Amino acid sequence: MVIEHAESVAPKVLNWPIKVPPFSIEHQVRLVMEARIGWKNLAGSNPWLRIAVNGNQLGKQDLLNKAEAFTLRRGVDLTWYKGGRWRILYSPDFESALKQTADGNSVEPKDEPYRFVFDITRHVTPGGENGLRIEHLKLLQEPSTLVLRNVKIEVGHAIEAPSDTAVQPAPAGPLPRIVAGGAHKLDLQVAPRDGTITVRVGDQELTVRTRLSLPGGAWREAKASGDTDFTAGPCRVSRKVSVRGDHIHVADTFANPSDKLIGVMIEHHADLIGKPVALYLAGRKSFADTAVADEAAHPTAFAQFANLGVGLVAEDDILRVHVRSFHNPKTFGISDNRLGIPAGGETTLEWSIYLLPGTGEQADYWAFANAVRRNWDVNFTIPGPFSFAHIPRGLTGEQYAKWMHDRSLAYACGGIAKYTDGKYAHGTGILSAPEFVAQERDWTRKMAAADSDLVPLAYFHAHCSTEPNGRTKYADSRLLDHQGEQIDYPYRYALPLYVPTVENSYGKALWGYVNTLIDDIGVRGIYWDEMSYSVKRFAPGLQWDGCTVSIDPTTHQVAGKLTSVPLIMQPLQLQIIDYVRGKGLFLMGNSQSHTRTVMRKKVIRFVETNTYSAAVNAHLGCPLALANHHVANTQADRAVLVRELLKRGAVYYGHYYDDEPVPWNFTNVMYPITPQQIGPGYVLGKERIHTAVSGRFAFADGKPAEVYVIDAEGKRVAKGMHREVRDGDGVAYELRFPSDHFAILVKR
User: For 518-541, what is each residue's pLDDT tens digit?
Assistant: First the structure.
């Protein structure tokens, strides 16, 4: 035993000597340990630890007792190893993640959430002193305690890690026909009464009920009779229900005739019709009995039953930023637990009910997501290819252009501004970093002049600023916690965060940053990092947004005012979007829109994929995923990313391109693509189809295509694996390939 029990508060480096007995060539030396972050409840995880033996960092190839990838019961897929660090769970003990199966943060027993077994054979010296080093990183502002136990060395016959990467051969037999479809007009019969809406389609019927909080901790439950307008304590509700082709739209106006601010909690829910085939909250399949999700980019709850799919969707700006999706063993739905209505004021919240009659693919999650996508008008063109570029400096314009063309890139983003001491000059700090500005001006202007089709982008972050004396200068704009302390972005040195608005000091100063990028550096586009918010979606101490409060769940009284960061920033964000586009420049953002108003601007936006499951946040917006799940230095690495993102209905966008160019790059034929339909393994576009699954594919207009099948190494398959066939008045393509391949169809 190396150590039975140890605790440390981050950041901390722990060192222990370890003794390894003599062993033979057939033996394996293993490091065994259990680890967790001490927390009051299950609360997710973070990549906290670096582990080294004799100075050698342990990596994913050393993990023996479980597969590298695992999935939480709330549907989030993760990896135990990420960027040189090992993922550790927040947990009150070494059992909860296994026993609390109703908690979405629990895992399957096979994933052994607390126990790690590493093969350290190649790192140790037999019969001598060796060293174990465990570094517990600081990732959050609040202290975190690492708890270790049963750290020991084992010597025995070799064991192998479980594998989940078996390649499936190309399928034989009939193939599914996969073609983009259009909207379906349904004969929806609606009967609104009091707080209920009964919807009928064919022989299927469903009732959605609305309940509202009352003063004193009680609830006003829906009734099956009465008018569509009703009251709940001091709140007056006026409801308008309309059928819109394939869904029902509901607009609820909440009025407060009293002389003081009130808080109202609202739940729209439907009963589970027997045991559901599947439940999805915010696009993630739920495996728990009870679960919740807070995701403005995917403000939905969806249930698939034997002969019917049902989705509830938040529509307007306020309900989207407030939304909480939920289900329990009896009901599912969406709610707003933060609505504040000022004295004499009123607020309208809009939401929709989707009914999808049928079985299988007719009524599954993907049919629901694509129906919402069509109604939200988010199927716009994605350009590319893109990369954050580690471009060598000091080249000529022609050399810059060649660097891009050799890597089949059209869009490239420069780095974050830095001072001469190497520290970040985030935000308005760029105004005090003239050397960086001059450096960026050189390569962007030269590249653009050498080839007008290339688009050099500048990095832009509206929340973070390291401008000297910024905390004092922009005191009214600081992002604060509930203790009134300014929040810093989690990094090894302070990166202060602000919330810029049209009225406050940092919002006004932000224009100096914008104009430096456009007028001084001369970029042809802007990449907006963390476009919706940074670190906190709701914060105290800011100008009130007029609709967000904290409500005591027991008494239902207003506990205080809060501000939605996406809402309060929205007017300034719209001004910047229009200003950049008014200059004829390209704009791209990180994270999906949190409001309907900003979504309607149709900005090219991706989601980061530290976990592949994050791709679901793009399902109701621009279906684009940044390929930053793992380091990709080869075409084979990139091919894995393309396939995994397609499995989740997302389009691949490059992350970094640091290696030498290859003779043929598959990204050269992947863009532009205008999505028409997304699915489990494919994105069907107007001019291109991306697929990681075999099938009988055709464009909606039946036009012929050039077919590119790409193998596991990222190389084009010379022939075979596809066949052109007649498909009505057009053509289709039968694709049969192994599971480590993918294909791109380009319309001729």
Answer: 999 999 999 999 999 998 999 999
Strand ordering across the sheet containing 624-626: 386-388, 411-413, 455-461, 525-529, 586-590, 604-608, 624-626, 651-653
Domain that holds residue 357: 188-376
Does position 165 have pLDDT exceeding 70, yes or no? no
- pTM, whole model, 2 decimals? 0.85
Out of 337, 361, 376, a domain closes at 376
Q: What percentage of residues in the chain have a pLDDT greater than 70?
A: 99
Q: In this structure, is residue 653 part of a structural domain?
A: no
Question: Looking at the structure, do residues 101 and 223 belong to the same domain, yes or no?
Answer: no
Q: Does residue 66 sit in the same domain as residue 141? A: yes
Q: Whole-angstrom Cα distance, residue 554 to residue 515?
A: 49
Last residue of a domain, one of 323, 351, 376: 376
**Which domain CATH number covers 356?**
2.70.98.90
Report pLDDT for 422. Answer: 95
Q: Are strands 651-653 and 624-626 parallel, antiparallel or unpaired?
A: parallel
As a whole number of angstroms, the distance between CA 59 and CA 67 comes to 13
How long a stretch of residues is the chain?
Answer: 748
Say what the pLDDT of residue 127 is.
Answer: 65
Q: Same domain, yes or no, for 11 and 82?
A: yes
pLDDT of residue 654: 87
Average pLDDT, the chain: 93
Strand ranges, E, within 411-542 = 411-413, 455-461, 525-529, 538-539
Query: What's residue 332's pLDDT?
Result: 97
The pLDDT score that the predictor gives to residue 637 is: 93
CA dihedral 536, 542, 544, 549 (to 10 degrees): 50
- The Cα 517–Cα 457 span in angstroms is 9
Residue 286 pLDDT greater than 90, yes or no: no
Residue 42, token pair as written in the block: 């299950």
Q: 227 and 78: one domain?
A: no
> What residue has token string 């464009």?
699
Mean of pLDDT values over 167-195: 93
Q: Using the predicted structure, report yes or no on whether residue 612 has a pLDDT greater than 90.
A: no
| φ, ψ dihedrals at 150, nearest 5° | 50, 45
b or e along 475-485 (b: 16 or more beta carbons within 10 Å of the residue's beta carbon)? ebbbbbeeeee
* Average pLDDT, integer, range 354-366: 95
Cα-based distances in Å from 322 to 240, 429, 614: 21, 32, 20
The Cβ of residue 84 has, within 10 Å, a number of other Cβ atoms equal to 14
Rg (the chain; Cα; Å): 27
Q: How many domains does the chain have?
A: 2
Tell me the per-residue pLDDT of 467-483, one tens digit each, with 9 for 90 and over: 999 999 999 999 999 88
Can you give the pLDDT at residue 273? Answer: 86
**How far, in Å, CA of 650 to CA of 677, rounded?**
10
Give the integer Cα–Cα distance in Å for 436 and 456.
Answer: 15
Give the whole-angstrom CA distance, residue 662 versus residue 636: 11
The H-or-E segment that residue 448 falls in is helix 434-450
Both 141 and 214 in a single domain?
A: no
Nearest to 31 by CA among 6, 3, 12: 3
Residue 469 placed within a domain: no
Q: Per DSSP, what are the bridge partners of residue 348?
A: 253
Beta-ladder partners of 453:
none
Distances from the Cα of 341 to the Cα of 211, 561, 600, 616, angstroms: 17, 11, 26, 32
- In a domain? residue 503: no
Please check whether residues 149 and 251 belong to one and the same domain.
no
Backbone angles phi, psi at 551, to 5 degrees: -115, 130
- On whether residue 409 sits in a domain, the answer given is no
Q: How many angstroms separate the CA atoms of 169 and 740, rounded? A: 9
C-beta of residue 466 within 8 angstroms of C-beta of residue 424: yes
